[in-house]
Amino acid sequence: MSIDFEIPAEAKAIREKVRKFVHDECIPAEKELDTKPLADVLGPLRKKARAQGLWCPFVPREYGGMGLGPLANALVQMELGESMLGALALNTQGPDDASMMTILAHGTEYQKEKFLKPLLNGEKRICFSMTEKAAGADATGMQTTAVKDGNENYILNGEKWFSSSASVADMALVMAKTDPNAPRHKQYSTFIVELPNPGYRIKRNVANMAIEGPHDDVIHGGHSEIEIKDLKVSADNLLGGEGNGFNMGQHRLAYGRLRHGMHNVAKAQRALDMAVAHVTKRSTFGQLLADRQAVQFMLADCASELYIGRLMLLHIAYKAENGLDIRQENSIAKIFHAHMVHKVIDTAIQLHGALGFSQDTPLAKWYTQVRSQRLVDGPDEVHKWKIGKNVIKAFREHGTTASAAGGDLL
């Protein structure tokens, strides 16, 4: 049987349509953010996107989305990430997108009508409150509790840390421990919390190393430290049933990791394009930079990294489309893309010289932002630990590591 790498014509057409929208509309609109309110920039973009049928790519058509499968959605996301406004324009920005998928898959009809519908319409935003200082990358170390108050409500108490977009969210998915005596992965549940709420207090947005520009607090939403104190949540807002919070959260994060990787490919591609545009017009000592072998080698390294990154994502999308297990590949790709985008942007800065080090191009800003990719949705070390365990397991069971190291791709 042959291996078919051909992308379906329909998916190619959607990719081209999104690529044109990003380059013709989103990237030019970025300059308007310096002088206009975000709503005045994003509103027209969203109107244009919807008019072209570009809205919520992964959401089924019956819910108002484009109904794309994993492969077509991957192609779209690998275009949207070239602009900070790309995902927002199509209402597929994180962390909202993964939370929409979670409610879509596990929500009751009441929850879909009350909470999902305004998210899909782009009227509201949602954050995901799981991470805690005490637990860090170990989600099973969460200490926030949810205690039943009769049959009508749960009372939540605890703290959350680095809840992305909490400061701009109208609701939150909050994970809390409902049964400390259950098996480790069945102790936690997820609740939909409407915001603002006095029991869910944002103590601060945690300052970090990323260079911020106009409206970044809204576009990216910040990373909030939250105090949860006597937060009353209706039992009707329990998502997916008691004890299912951890598994839902991991599935949600799995998509988030892939989306980060897709956007990283797009951002790296834009950085490489900027670098090539610069070296093909910049001369030193009487010669174009583009004609220097050292420069060509640097560009070759970037192109190679992007090629590998794209193949990883397309292979994972293929497996997801066919209902195959993607956990090992997801972890490998998560680590690879986080390093890849940092390397490509760093190379682009180097090729721009002092201009790249300045803030006259977006490269310096991107450089500080993408450093977070090695930490979010699980740091490098946690994913390497999982990958390594699977490699050892494969050898013990089969006498070879091939199935855990890409030798058994299908």
Description:
The chain is α+β, with helices and mostly antiparallel strands and 410 residues long. The protein is built from 13 helices and 10 strands. The strands form 3 sheets. The protein has a 4-stranded mixed beta sheet, covered by helices on one side. Strands 2-3-7-6 form a 4-stranded antiparallel beta sheet, with no helix packed on it. Strands 9-10 form a two-stranded antiparallel sheet.
Element pattern in H and E? HHHHHHEEEEEEHEEHEEHHHHH
Tally of extended strands?
10
CATH domain topology of the largest domain: Butyryl-CoA Dehydrogenase, subunit A, domain 3
Look at the structure and name the CATH superfamily of the largest domain.
Answer: Butyryl-CoA Dehydrogenase, subunit A, domain 3
Strand order within the widest beta sheet: 1-4-5-8
Largest sheet: 4 strands, mixed
Number of helices: 13
- Name the overall outline: globular
Please identify the structural class as seen in this structure.
Answer: alpha+beta
Low-confidence residue ranges: none
Average of the residue pLDDT scores:
93
Number of domains: 3
Instruction: Give the CA-CA distance, first to last residue.
Output: 12 Å
Which radius of gyration do the C-alpha atoms yield?
22 Å
Based on the coordinates given, report the CATH architecture of the largest domain: Up-down Bundle
